[in-house]
Fold this sequence. Notes:
mainly beta, UDP N-Acetylglucosamine Acyltransferase, domain 1, eight-stranded mixed beta sheet, Transf_Hexapept/Carb_Anhydrase, Trimer_LpxA-like_sf, LbH_gamma_CA-like, Gamma carbonic anhydrase family protein
Amino acid sequence: MIRDFEGIKPEIHESVYVSESAEIIGKVSIGENSSVWYTSVIRGDDEYIKIGKNTNIQDGTVIHGELKTEIGDNVTIGHRAIVHGAKVGNNSLIGMGAILLDGAEIGEFSIVGAGALVTSGKKFPDGMLIIGSPAKAVRELTDEEKKGLLKSADMYVETAEKHKNI
């Protein structure tokens, strides 16, 4: 469901797939060919949330925050992740169940592993594999891994098209 909050309506490109069980509220913008999957909540009642193009917000994810939240283009946010007032660079993947807290920043072409906890204010450069609780960068991604990030985003654009017809 897409809801206004205090007179502010989410801005969602017409090509975006939004599951009927997702909730998108208030100060939110979502770019073309992105998707918001089942039971996800994107709650822009405190601060602005910007989601780029070709980005997928997978099932059960929560995006909210007391700081502006920015998620780039070609990003995959895995099932049941929490992004709270954080920034995620283009072409990155946030693993299932990962938590990004206020002020955290993930660089472009990065992977945050499943279940990782990125603490408030923690900043990671481009191209890193980030795992653990608290999260730490353990190595740089290979060129092959970086190509895989783009494939993940592309696959979800295709899958969303199929779901539009259900």
